Input
Amino acid sequence: GAVVSQHPSWVICKSGTSVKIECRSLDFQATTMFWYRQFPKQSLMLMATSNEGSKATYEQGVEKDKFLINHASLTLSTLTVTSAHPEDSSFYICSATRLAGEGRETQYFGPGTRLLVL
Amino acid sequence: AQSVSQHNHHVILSEAASLELGCNYSYGGTVNLFWYVQYPGQHLQLLLKYFSGDPLVKGIKGFEAEFIKSKFSFNLRKPSVQWSDTAEYFCAVNPAGNAGNMLTFGGGTRLMVKP
Output
């Protein structure tokens, strides 16, 4: 299989603190990892695309200084929500691409991290 | 930029009823197509995918989807649903050969199957 884990699964923090979320591909090397945000009763919105060893590519409207992404290895990407505020409360989901051939990559999703900023 | 639309936001069916969830996309080129399922309290799981070849794709748990290029559609079907199919279903698209692999998701369809 292709298993992706996220840690922590949920976190509650005070406004102004920073929160780090880890995304790991457990049994495969991920060429690319993605970070999504899902608001209640809404679809996933892509925040950024992360490639190992290079800077992340952020989607329009996503503040790169607010959401720091580090892709340290082919199995680990981290998302840090800096100086979190209540409006950052959301469900953050990562996915990892398992290379299956050019243009045939499939994304496998982590279980998500629920962030609540008080 | 491509977009994906799922016309049914909520679907309620009785067990053994047939299911068809619509998915249409807008993109002029060749695409890869996916259906993901999210069971209550669980993460997204791949249900099935289409890259090329036979436009009728069979996935897990008795699901299938048909790619109709002329209609830009990739509808999900199941002949007889079960209570355990209660979940949210997402259609997703990315341009074929896209090294970035960015997926564009539809808005999702919440399926409730009554026992």
Notes: Residues 4 and 25 of chain A are 4 Å apart (CA to CA). Chain A touches chain B at residues 32, 34, 42-46, 49, 57, 93, 95, 97, 102-112 (CB under 8 Å). The mean pLDDT of chain A is 89. The two ends of chain A are 37 Å apart (CA to CA).
